[in-house]
Amino acid sequence: MRIGELAQRAGTSTRTLRYYEHQGLLHAGRAANGYRVYDDAELRVVREIRALLAVGFALDDIRPFVDCLRAGNESGDVCPDSVAVLRRKLAEVDAAIDEMTAVRDQLRTQLNDAINDRETPCCAMTC
Amino acid sequence: MRIGELAQRAGTSTRTLRYYEHQGLLHAGRAANGYRVYDDAELRVVREIRALLAVGFALDDIRPFVDCLRAGNESGDVCPDSVAVLRRKLAEVDAAIDEMTAVRDQLRTQLNDAINDRETPCCAMTC
DNA sequence: GCTTGCCTTGACGTCGGCGGCAAGGTTTAG
DNA sequence: CTAAACCTTGCCGCCGACGTCAAGGCAAGC
Fold first, then answer.
1. What CATH number should be reported for the domain holding residue A93?
2. Domain range for residue B47?
């Protein structure tokens, strides 16, 4: 499998795959003419990367998952390093949700106050 | 008031103030020697900007609030454009919270599955 | 041979809110 | 006179996951 086919099957671009390789996440052999050659296992790797990216992981955080897959596990999640990253990310997301919730409450207050403050002088002048 | 003093009173840097001016948010007069000169009202403007940035607004979104303050209002929130931005931002934050919550739930599931899957073969082999 | 479509490396652009440095001019205190 | 502490403009760096050329080499069909 060459890079174009892998990109298509993974639903991404060739540029992205070269980038992953540059980051050390994706492995490629080389044909005689210099073309990258991938075996089928790399498709799973790319899908793992894409799935974790979609959830909000950085490429650095994804490395343990890829290593875990390469070690022969069915899932990239089962290795200790992966679990550690999962835990850390979960804590981060929890914290982020708390922050966003506080922001949301403040925005609501601010919006209500703005509307009230606006109606008061408006009505005092027009009514 | 010159830029250093304004920066100090607003709790930020001179670099930041020049940036805000470059973005058209902050207004400065000029002394004979070319130094920027600010009147006291600009301090409120800077604080408004900082407060909104802290809540997650982009500088572009903050412009209406600053204009509103400059129009003589006590709060930058009361003008229609500001209210519109507040509403939009509130919707964005709500959506972001929903997304993050979904991510959190997936992470929890993934983490649980990982731990269960790991214990099974581990125990099968060692126990 | 010629076109078309694949592939290669390399390097710059993106977005936002600044930080930091260079290379000066100004003012004030000692 | 000089050091120190202000100020000026201008430009590069940063982070992250790529997009987007540029300039070329290889393969396959007509």
1. 1.10.1660.10
2. 3-116
- Asked whether residue A37 is assigned to any structural domain, the reply reads yes
Binary contact (B89, A101; C-beta < 8 A): no
CA of A47 to C1' of C12 (A): 29
Number of separate domains in chain A:
1
Q: Which residues make up the interface with nucleic strand C when CB must lie under 7 A?
A: A 2-5, 14-15, 18, 28, 34-36; B 12-13, 15-16, 19, 32-34, 53, 57-60
- Report the predicted TM-score, pTM, of the whole model to 2 decimal places: 0.86
Kindly write down the DSSP assignment for every residue of chain A, as one continuous string. Answer: --HHHHHHHHTS-HHHHHHHHHTTS---EE-TTS-EE--THHHHHHHHHHHHHHHT--HHHHHHHHHHHHTT-SSTT-SHHHHHHHHHHHHHHHHHHHHHHHHHHHHHHHHHHHHHHHHHHHHHHH-
pLDDT per residue, tens digit, chain B (127 aa), is 999 999 999 999 999 999 999 999 999 999 999 999 999 999 999 999 999 999 999 999 999 999 999 999 999 999 999 999 999 999 999 999 999 999 999 999 999 998 887 655 544 343 3
